[in-house]
Design a protein that fits this description.
The chain has 100 residues and is mostly beta strands. The protein is built from no helices and six strands. A six-stranded antiparallel β-barrel has the order 1-4-3-2-5-6. It is globular.
């Protein structure tokens, strides 16, 4: 069983401590800490540049116990190497989807 989130993401520009490079949500290789939960981005635009945003789907990888806070409207920090690089606002949560 796997949980997924639909969310709107905003990456901070490098000038304010954000990432220097874009992310590619569709590749499934971007795995930041979001709030206190590890997530894997699996769908969205081809790339999201620093300073820009987009709608994404993420898979909750390692649930921390705080997943009860993952409700629509909740805003969470995207953290890489103990540094906030963006914000994620939850728009929808799918619980216990069957992985095929």
């Amino acid at each position: 069983m796997i949980d997924f989130l639909e969310a709107v993401v905003l990456l901070l520009p490098p000038e304010v401590g954000g990432r220097a490079a874009a992310i590619a949500p569709r590749e499934g290789s971007y795995r930041p800490l979001v709030g206190s939960t590890h997530m894997r981005f699996i769908e969205g635009p081809p790339t999201i540049e620093p300073g820009h945003g987009g709608r994404v789907v993420v898979e909750l990888e390692r649930v921390s116990g705080d997943e009860v806070d993952l409700v629509p409207g909740r805003e969470l920090e995207i953290i890489e190497n103990e540094r906030v690089v963006g914000l994620l606002m939850v728009t929808r949560l799918w619980r216990s989807a069957l992985a095929l």
